[in-house]
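Please fill in the sequence for the structure shown.

STRUCTURE ENCODING:
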C-alpha cells in the first residue's frame, strides 16, 4: 500500500505548484469556490482529498487541454464517452483496490460470464473515485476519494486498473503519487508509463 501523503491538510507548497501549472493557462476553468465544494461533498457524503479540494475551490475547476489528453474535467462531470448505461457512481463506497489489477491478464476472468465480470469490475470504475478525465479509448483517470488509496490517482481502462506513482522500482507508472505529482508529471511532458 502507498503511504506518506497528507490528504487532510493542503500543503501550501503543493498548492503553489498547482497554481503555477494551472492558473495562468487561458483554457483554465475558474474555481468553483468553497460553497460549491461543500455542496458536492454533502451530496456525496465525502470530503475531497487535499490538495485537490483546495485546488477546485481556489485555483481551477478544469482545463480544456489536459491533463489528461482530453482535458481535466470540472468537479462532478464525467467524460462524454463514459456511457449512459453505467451503474450509479458511489463516491462514499471505498475504492476496492490497493494494487494494480490487470484483469485482461487474469486467467480466471476468462471463465466468468459478462454479468460476473461486471460485478467484479464495476466497483473499480464506480466506487470511491472522482473522474479527472480521459485519454480516450476508454482510458480514464480517477482521483480516489475514499478507501486506503484516498488521494492517489489511478488509470482505469478496459484492460485493468493501475495507480500512478507507486513507490516501487517495478511500477508501471512511476512518479510522485497524488494529484500534485500527477499534474506535475503531465506539465513536464513526461510519459505516464515506465517503458515508454
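FILLED IN BY: designer on duty
SEQUENCE:
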Amino acid at each position: 500500500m502507498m503511504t506518506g501523503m497528507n490528504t487532510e491538510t493542503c500543503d501550501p507548497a503543493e498548492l503553489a505548484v498547482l497554481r503555477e501549472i494551472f492558473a495562468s493557462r487561458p483554457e483554465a476553468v475558474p474555481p468553483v469556490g468553497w460553497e460549491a465544494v461543500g455542496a458536492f461533498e454533502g451530496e456525496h457524503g465525502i470530503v475531497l482529498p487535499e490538495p485537490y479540494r483546495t485546488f477546485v475551490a481556489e485555483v481551477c475547476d478544469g482545463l480544456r487541454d489536459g491533463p489528461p489528453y482530453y482535458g481535466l474535467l470540472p468537479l462532478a462531470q464525467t467524460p462524454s464517452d463514459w456511457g449512459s448505461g453505467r451503474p450509479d457512481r458511489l463516491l462514499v463506497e471505498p475504492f476496492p483496490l490497493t494494487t494494480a489489477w490487470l484483469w485482461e491478464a487474469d486467467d480466471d476472468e476468462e471463465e466468468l460470464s459478462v454479468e460476473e465480470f461486471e460485478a467484479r469490475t464495476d466497483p473499480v470504475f464506480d466506487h470511491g473515485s472522482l473522474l479527472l478525465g480521459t485519454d480516450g479509448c476508454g482510458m480514464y483517470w480517477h482521483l480516489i476519494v475514499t478507501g486506503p488509496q484516498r488521494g492517489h490517482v489511478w488509470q482505469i481502462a478496459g484492460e485493468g486498473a493501475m495507480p500512478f506513482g507507486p513507490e516501487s522500482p517495478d511500477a508501471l507508472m512511476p512518479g510522485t503519487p497524488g494529484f500534485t505529482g500527477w499534474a506535475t508529471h503531465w506539465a513536464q511532458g513526461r510519459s505516464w508509463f515506465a517503458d515508454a
